[in-house]
Amino acid sequence: MAWYHAITRPGQRSLTASASVSPPVEPQAVTAAASPVKGPQAQFIRHPDAWQNEVWDFHDGLGEYNYGVWWLSNMLSRVRLRAAKLQSDADEPEIQTKGVAAELMMRLHGGVAGQAQMMKRLTVQISVPGEGYLVGETEGKRETWKVRSVDEVRAQSGKYQVMNEDNVSTGQEWRDLAKDNLVVRVWRPHDRWYHLADSPSRSARAIMRELELVNRKIVADYLSRLASAGVVAMPDEISFPVREEFADAPNPFMAEWIETAAEAIKNPGTASAVIPIPMVGPADALKEIRFIDFSVRADEKIIEKRDSVIKRLATKMDMPAEILLGMGDVNHWSAWQLEEGALKTHIAPVAELICDALTTGYLQPRLEAAGEDPSDWVVWYDMSELAMRPDKSANAKDAYDRLELSGAAYRRELGFDEDDKPTDDELKEQALKVIIRILPDGAASALAQLIGENIPQIVPVSPQGSDNTSPPGETAPPGAPDASSERTPTGPPDTQGDGPPEPDEASRKAARAARLVVQGGTQHMLRFGVGKRWDLLHPKLCTEHEYSCPFTRAVQTAAPAVRPGLGGTYLCRLDTFGRLVIDGPAMYADTRSMISTSLVPVVNGYG
Question: ω into residue 23 within 30 of 0, thus cis?
């Protein structure tokens, strides 16, 4: 449970505010009358304990601990505070964007930017010493808010005082707070002593001491190597040809050696930096050359020890262990799960603690002074800027193609908002493009509406005027048997041509378009075997029209990636744009009554 305490003076005037929503609420003071203590010497104005001073030192000097606290505070700075109303039938209160409460929350700490800094600093106070103060002051009609540590607030001579930021000019370290100012203490109560603050850092001090010692050991090893490069011991029998400028040196050999080493360090990329120094002497004497190393030999396990201590510290602190250990060992999905767990386990409890303090110490008193009923109002938080959801765009696409998902939900899962929704004109243009793609008979009319120019209908003619042509608009794909050879007239020879008159052109096109739509929405199947040819299985309604079926055209233009890895019979469908989609194997499907069409998909213009 989150706790707070508002500190006020005995007999101070209550918070005042305008009760109207328009014009905006303009409180005359930021005082609060919630749970006042008896006097400035009460136990809620306290001096820091020894453990709090120690963890502050670790915060300032231990990098791993400082980074963990800063990560948590930066996360909380992205949490937005809102005014919300309690709902009897809901787990969470309902956030409100209008009214007196909403305006009061907007005014707190200067709005969104100021509240982000307030949340960040309050998180540091709660995570390190376990307690802090939110101090509100008025300067005319202007409100100023600051988050202060326990070291910055005190009681002196019956007055509350805060650290004076202008002490450079005034020479005074402390200044009195006006009697109409607000001081709210926010803390984690100790499980044994309610008025005492507690923090995860308190019980982690032993681990942080160990980590500090390990870091010092590593630094000491490095410094020992920098302090001395060791000693080279050589016998007197060694002779060494020296240059003329070193001939008068007390030890010409050592003088030239040091000069050679200095030149190699100065110019590390030259050949002289890597060529060994020649040396001549008796064989027995050369064996006596020894290097003596005075530096402390580094423990090969020291880095592993440090990682182990960091892991223990991360486990003890109120944050995900991966934050201090790094994210290198987790993949995309486990990183999302970590972030989702961090929001619920580490971020939300701190946010709720702060919200509870602000509810009773800030929002409810000011609502009461404004003439509003504060009982159902609370300060709540919005973590939408931190939430990371799994990528469901692929599933959303499939559900949208099956007409099982709304356009708004589809846009949301793809990361778009409602401003990206197509207008009526844009939707009409997209529909015309779909017609051009999957309905050949309507392509000319659709294209004419798109470009504003009539395009003549192109009627396919069989090569060399052959009589073996497909029905009008039924153009067989390359390599497929001629349509006229597949089907034979069913009536007697003398009755061919006798029957009702041909429908007019418009009716014929309308009927054909309706049939194509029905064909495109009916279940088809694909059979894959050895070789490049695919067998497309049509239902009975495609009889006499399998070559103009939208599935036939989609299979011809299917990319190689559409083909599954194993042979067999698969269910297939067309997406919104007429593209082929393979759903899965049709293990027990009865294909005996289906019409088979053998096709070769066209890839980059070649079958």
Answer: yes
Q: Is 99 left (phi over 0), alpha (psi -120 to 50) or beta?
A: left
- Are 26 and 139 members of one domain? yes
Looking at the fold, whether 66 and 179 belong to one and the same domain comes out as yes
The reply to whether 400 and 378 lie within a common domain is no
* pLDDT of the residue at 465: 42
Report yes or no on 306 lying in a domain.
Answer: no
Q: Are 288 and 235 in contact (CB under 8 A)?
A: yes
CA quadruple 536, 537, 541, 542: dihedral, nearest 10: 20
DSSP per-residue codes, 92-121: SPEEE-SSHHHHHHHHGGGSHHHHHHHHHH
Helical axes 50-61 vs 205-227, angle rounded to 10°: 40
pLDDT at res. 53: 93
Contact present, 321 and 315 (Cβ < 8 Å): yes
218 within domain boundaries? no
- Based on the structure, what is the number of domains in the chain? 4
pTM more than 0.85: no
pLDDT of residue 258: 79
> Pick from 64, 66, 75: which is nearest to 338 by CA?
75
The answer to whether residues 178 and 285 belong to one domain is no
Looking at the structure, tell me whether residues 200 and 274 fall in a common domain: no
Say whether both 376 and 397 belong to one domain. Answer: no
What DSSP assignment string belongs to 248-314? Answer: TSSSHHHHHHHHHHHHHHH-TTSGGGTSPPP-B--HHHHHT-EEE--SPPPPTTHHHHHHHHHHHHH
Task: Report the alpha-carbon distance of residue 213 to residue 298 in Å, rounded.
Answer: 15
DSSP string computed for 502-534: PPPHHHHHHHHHHHHHHHHTS-EEEEE-SSS-E
**Domain end marker among 451, 471, 497:** 451
Q: How far apart are CA 99 and CA 21, in angstroms?
A: 6
Contacts 24+ apart (CB under 8 A), 196-201: 197/52, 197/129, 197/130, 197/131, 198/130, 199/55, 199/126, 199/127, 199/128, 199/129, 199/130, 200/127, 200/316, 200/317, 200/318, 201/55, 201/58, 201/59, 201/65, 201/127, 201/128, 201/129, 201/130, 201/317
Q: Which position has the token pair 């008979």? A: 441
DSSP state of 224: H
Pairwise CA distance, residues 422 & 429, whole Å: 10
Q: How many CB atoms lie within 10 A of CB 359?
A: 21
Which residues does 398 contact at the CB level (< 8 Å), separation at least 6?
A: none
> Do 378 and 403 share a structural domain?
no
Torsion sign, CA atoms 274, 279, 282, 288? negative
Give the model's pLDDT for residue 21.
33
Q: By the 8 A CB rule, do 116 and 8 touch? A: no
Q: Is residue 209 included in any domain, yes or no?
A: no
Which residues in the chain land under pLDDT 70? Answer: 1-46, 168-172, 224-231, 238-240, 269, 271-279, 292-299, 326-340, 387-390, 437-443, 453-503, 530-531, 559-561, 602-607
Antiparallel, parallel or unpaired: β 142-148 and 231-233: unpaired
Q: Residue 551 and residue 525: Cα distance in Å, rounded?
A: 9
The answer to whether residue 467 sits within a structural domain is no
CA distance 95 to 86: 9
Range of the domain at 140: 3-204+320-382
Spatial CB neighbours of 341, under 8 Å, sequence gap ≥ 6: 320
Do 437 and 542 sit in the same domain of this protein?
no
